[in-house]
Amino acid sequence: MNDSSISSLLGAAAARTVPVVRTVREERLGDPTPCSGYDVRGLLEHLFDVMVNFEGLARKEPSAFEKEPERLKGDPEWRDRFAGQADRLVAAWAEPGAEEGTTGAMDQPARLVGTIMLLDLTVHGWDLARASGQRFTPDPAGVEVLSGVIDRLAPFARDAGLFGEPKPAAADASRFEVLLAATGRDPRLAARGLSRGQPRPGPRGQPAGGAGTRPSAIRPVRTASPRAWTADRGRTITVNSLMRPSSSKCSRSMPWICLPPTVARKGRTADGATAPSALVSAAPSYRPM
Predict the structure, then answer these.
(1) Of the candidates 150, 38, 104, which has an alpha carbon nearest to the alpha carbon of residue 250?
(2) CA-CA 20 to 30 A from 142: which of 15, 178, 226, 252?
(3) Residues of the chain falling short of pLDDT 50
(4) For residues 289 and 257, what is the distance between their CA atoms, to the nearest angstrom?
């Protein structure tokens, strides 16, 4: 394992995010986070579910992201479980062949898939630190890798509602602050800069929501275009170079990893009647940013 391997990068990111999670107090679980639509509890559940699925993706196993995961609910040892899952994630990506070939229902390059997990673990670590009044210093090597791919991921992520509109970064912004701004976050947001229970704007003009709320589902509608689909808010979602046809079926997952093959090829579902429900429903279901 070397410093540029996905396992090494994930290990370094986990070494910074897990201590933040261990320090979150129970009374802060209902507080809002910079990740629109998630309170602290919801974001912890989401990140845990992501780590479980990306452990499997390292082994080329199918993913099954949950819309509203409750894997940690009711467990008094949830902090230890989170730390243990982070260890399993890192170990899975250290296994021989983990970075080779493709993985996920859209057969994306395995290293790119691992990099998306790195993005989640790094940025959500910052989210949780800001929401719970803690400091967060990312791994410099991880930030360097993410800075090299964010321009490739961001445009589609914004179209799908996974990122908010980019924020301006100061002239003296660090590389991590520029990265945060690209995901729609205010990089200068102070710890606990969000008012508890106060509504906050959703991404791309979605209705504001308070702590613990999620954006309403995006309803598929008919469309004539084979390459783009329109959701009920008028947003057009376009298949780009990150979305390639696959022989595998998929349901809830990342839009850029998972899209039904009939949709990817024809721009419609098997019955030819609707827009790709797996794509548009994934935006509120799997929202890494």
Answers:
(1) 104
(2) 252
(3) 1, 195-289
(4) 15
